[in-house]
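User: Predict Protein SHQ1 homolog's structure from this.
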Amino acid sequence: MITPAFELTQDPDFLTVIIRVPYARPSEFDVYFEGEDFKFYAKPYFLRQLTLPGRIVEDGREKASYNTDEGTFTIRLPKEIPGQYFEGLDMLTSLLAPKKSRSAKPLVEEIAASAELCEEEEEEEEFDWEIEQTPYEESSESSSLLQHPYGFGNLRSGVFQRLQDELSDVIDIKDPDQTPAAERRRRRLAAEAAKFEPDHYLADFFEDETIQHLLKYKPWWVDAHKKMTALQRESHQEHDTHTFVVFSEEEREQLRKFTNKSYLLDKRSRHHVYLGLIDILLAYCYEICVNEGDKSVESSWNIRKLSATLCWLESFTCIHDVLVSFGRRVLCYPLYRHFGLVTRAFTDTVMILQLGKAAVLKCLLDIHQIFLESDPAYILNDLFITDYCIWIQKIKSKKLAALSESLQKAVLTKSHVGLELEELEAAAVLVQEEENALKAAGTVSKQQLLSSESETSDSEESSSTSSSETEGSDSDEQESSTSEDGEINPFQGTLQEERTAPLIDCNGLRQGTNTSALEVSDGKSKVSLQSPSLPGKLIEELEMQMHSAMRLSEQPEGLATAGCISQEQEENPVPKPDRFSEDTAGKGNFLEVSSKPNPLHFLCSTNED
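Assistant:
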């Protein structure tokens, strides 16, 4: 027989059961309902038994119809008490459980304990979400040999002892069966502190354009929470949260495949289960936010890495420890490490819990599917998620309401995570301000430099203009002096360099060099002044000789004023002072031994026409 797909809805007076039976014979079907029991048969489909959360009655108002196009039966059954609300119609796994298993005693139990007593105790007790304090007990040698439990409600042990090599990528702790809870926590804190990277955190803190865009994403529970809040404000009363959560056909199929179980949890174990649920939901909300609702190859890694419950098999004792652990892991492991993502996941988790167990179950089913498609992470479904999916359908809604209120009152700041975030941010802000100040000063200096260069250019242009005007006035004065005297100074055209530079006769060096000539006329004779253009290498050699204590003296008396020797002076030479020695070439070179080098003096010779 095949268990058909089905769903249940309700209105104030009727319960509606919709059953999909494609290719079945509509003329051959059987329906049975009485009190809280409902059965359906249409070959080859058989819905053995549904245990309803309320009673129905057969009074002639019941009605059934069949849609041939969709292959669905729709059966409307009247409620025994009109207006009664049936809770948990979406919890298909719980509805399929046999009625006997809901109240039967477990096969293994403590004396004078039963499942019914546990349920009554859970309903009556006020759950304390504060830190549980227990006296310190020294561990004995015999207890160290025992295996330490983990998993949902700490009901498993010995799983990783056999599969340590295969499952090393799933969890971070090594040999969890022999590691007590306190040691797991100590190792986890040490690993988080070693993994934290200040540069990565500060980069996401200052360059957060992408993160701010991700924070604007709104998952499905945001709109559902808004609708629920608005409806509650209008009617001033509580409404069923199931009406705001819709399960897909794939999710309903997942629920039908789960095996119904009963869990005997003591107070301490239930405490760990509720806090572990918060930890898993926080990691799931982060994953949905950063991927904007899409699945990726990193989805499984993100959820299990950010949840210390899944990654380190952690058992928390208070809500604050859960928030601190999640905050530290967000800032140490994933791609986006921003405290805004921590607070966003915190807010989303509160919304999910306020929407009730239907919203929580929908999130757990999504996590279950993500792990199912990831090869190494499937073991986490067996250890945690499958049990959570079954357990959440049976708990009381007021427990989740109390849990959401306690979580909403909790506070998490950057100082709580213990990574010196505020100090890092303050130091980075100071460095950034100094860099901005230096950049601003550099910009001002550059502007001042450009301004000064502009002023210098303007002054050079003005000085050039004034010098041109001065040369024009000098030319005018020279013309006027010529016209007044009637004579021209024969050496007035001599270059400035020739008037100021010391003189040396370069006749012996002129060969093979270029010369420049200037002709000056006095009206009677024509004098040609030539000066050699010495190569740089020759200048260096002369400088070396000069440094070896050879100096060419200044021009002696008797030479021509312009540095040229006339014909009369060559015929009747003027006697030379004793301190001069005549050159063997007789060309008028004068050398003197001196310890102090003086600049070279160039003496230009005359060329007759």
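Residues 154-421 form one domain.
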